[in-house]
Design a protein that fits this description.
It is built from 23 helices and 31 strands. It is an alpha/beta fold. The two termini are about 35 Å apart. The structure holds ligand MGD (2 copies), iron/sulfur cluster (SF4) and molybdenum atom. It holds the Pfam family Molybdopterin.
Amino acid sequence: MTMSSADTHCPYCALQCAMTVIHDGSTTVAGRDFPTNRGGLCAKGWTSAELLASPQRLGMPLTRRPDGTLAETTWDEALDAVAAAFRDTKAAHGADANAIFGGGGLTNEKAYQLGKFARVALGTSRIDYNGRFCMSSAAAASNRAFGMDRGLPFPVTDLDDARTILLLGSNVAATMPPFLAHLAGARANGGLMVVDPRRSATARLTEDGAGTHLQAAPGTDLPLLLGLTHIVIAEGLADRAYIEERTTGFDAVRRSVAAWWPERTSTTTGVPVAQLRETARRLAAGRTYILTGRGVEQHVDGTATATAAINLALVLGLVGREDSGYGTLTGQGNGQGGREHGQKADQLPGYRSIRDPEARRHVAGVWGVDHDDLPDAGIPATALLGELGGPVKTLLVAGSNVVVSAPDVEAVRARLEALDTLIVCDFFLSETAELADIVLPVLQWAEEEGTMTSLEGRVIRRRQALPGPDGARSELWIMAEIARRLGAASTWSTNPAEVFDELARASEGGIADYSGLSHALLDTGIEAYWPYRSESTPRPFAEGFAHADGLARLVPVEAAPPTPTDRGGDLTLVTGRYLQQYQSGTQTRRVSELNGARPEAQLEIHPATASRLGIREGALVAVSNERGTVRARASVTTDIRHDTVFLPFHYAGDECANRLTEARVDPTSAMPEFKRTRVTVALDATVPVARPTAHEPVGVSVAGGPIDDAGRGGALTKEGLHA
Ligand SMILES: Nc1nc2c(c(=O)[nH]1)N[C@H]1C(S)=C(S)[C@@H](COP(=O)(O)OP(=O)(O)OC[C@H]3O[C@@H](n4cnc5c(=O)[nH]c(N)nc54)[C@H](O)[C@@H]3O)O[C@H]1N2
Ligand SMILES: Nc1nc2c(c(=O)[nH]1)N[C@H]1C(S)=C(S)[C@@H](COP(=O)(O)OP(=O)(O)OC[C@H]3O[C@@H](n4cnc5c(=O)[nH]c(N)nc54)[C@H](O)[C@@H]3O)O[C@H]1N2
Ligand code: SF4
Ligand SMILES: [Mo]
């Protein structure tokens, strides 16, 4: 066996930690020095190679037999069946009866090709992706305020020199452990301010003088932000010169926060007045960053909340400065690039609007088709899932496990079952693939070439380190083969570098302009922040914002009173993540070390609430509302508020948190409410078992070494990195 190796990046989250993959029969990874991770990897990164050789890996296409089982078939048969399903569906029900559901983990090349495949090969408007569940509210707010949505409009290393960082609804200690190194400066200054209804691993990093944990009630971030903005203005801490020079709309925002005086904000959020005042003053003291995560965005008022965070940042004069800023922490590996190149219902490559006639002409020109033939905007993910089995008859899923991760999953399952044909591309038989009529096995990260765009808006190369298994194929090849069978217009390259060149041309002149980039240029190791025409743009707002007049928009938003649909039980369920599990768990539940550390869903519940309900540590509990019941083991902890319980969403079956969540969405972004669901909790009398519970670890490693609960090798404690 010859040895091969490649410098690439982690398959999982948007931090895109740099790693070297070495293959000499078996495959191993090593952290590689890079500004975002400085050689560190979390437990998921360290163990990522295990899945390449997993015995559960799909080796051949599968089709459903008349007896209901999935059986192996040849690629020709499988692709013929896919093409026939698309063709028959279109003939019988029209182009929009075919649909595509993509993912933010796909490379830029695959995401681009998927968008083109939907519009050109299928002619359907029905395409959207899981980024709708992830980034859409922050994206909508940023687009409106700045005219551009780049998660972090500055290099992540800028954070190193911050004095104060306000982190709202983000548990980076579990979701991006190596990122913690960038919080060290703020912590040394006592300036890490974490807003979370739980004392999460990240909130614990504020202890011992490192900062402040604002333990606001779930879903009260909007009033909290309005209240902080109120104090900033009332105490004369607003940056008047900046507001005058770089923004419009201040008066309306000033009026909109007038009624959020500190006492009212405190009553609504549960955050003491003194903490509110201290936070506002700190934020105004300079070298300040405001960052948001899913905890504040995955709500029916997520766009308004992200807007309120932006307003606060603008009133303080933070955005577009060298030493301050606002940003959102993109989640999936290519969550940033995945939302720029056309797998979103209303988008064409280059972050262009599909409704813009000029953009349609440009992109149709690159594709060699008539712009009048391009479909209109489609509908967002949750609405699209709602059409399955109704107007939509055939669905292809690439890069999502919707039957675990979408809101109200039992309804989603029923709709998937009502389809004429479900096609799933994956490397494992995910719970969604288990329902499919045709399953197409694809390559994993270390087996393919491509590019990813990290949470900083930096375009990086994913490189092939080893060949894929015999039966698996690249998605570019799969799309090309289906397009050919359908007699589609345009050309369908299977070479990632060529597809990138086409993407670059399609993006030219758009907001996310990649036109100056190519695989060859990226391979020289240049730093490539988009927009990149002839040079990198690490800080796109330094000179001006992306609106025609260069000004940022301050947009007044209101905190709505709780709606009558907030019913279902006396406790609020918030959902989130464990360090060792990733998303729907298709991948990490198959990694022995990760699943060993986190084998099951645990319900975090406060001791007072638990005692009221007769629930002890380790007991099995039933969490219910009108949509369903989830079974989990109780983890009794003072880290959570009395009125709140917490579940991760990584598990399937009766441990699946999304049995409880509701398909209610934000009116602007169409992002679902994942973070606030009314539930009742009761002892599940059927199986009372005691078992020790793991506490949430904070783990990152720079060196490898022995495995512990915190990841491989050293753990990052409150004091810093221990090798
Ligand atoms: N280990 C691991 N890492 C991951 C992922 C994973 O699945 N596992 N997924 C990746 C992806 S796609 C994403 S999007 C990111 C997500 O990364 P995060 O945004 O850090 O993820 P969450 O755990 O969903 O939510 C963060 C915190 O929000 C809190 N929260 C819940 N409700 C509220 C609220 O109303 N207000 C406030 N202020 N906080 C609230 C939760 O208690 C939780 O601690 O992580 C990425 N990294
Ligand atoms: N209750 C609750 N629900 C949530 C959230 C929450 O906080 N709470 N968070 C939401 C968020 S932020 C997100 S991002 C979603 C994520 O949820 P999902 O969209 O389900 O994400 P993954 O589990 O990453 O699913 C990716 C699937 O595609 C496969 N896959 C990975 N890479 C590729 C590839 O390159 N090609 C193909 N074809 N397949 C691939 C994986 O094996 C896996 O089966 O969940 C959302 N759901
Ligand atoms: S934080 Fe962990 S999962 Fe995210 S890129 Fe780094 S090693 Fe991978
Ligand atoms: Mo996400």
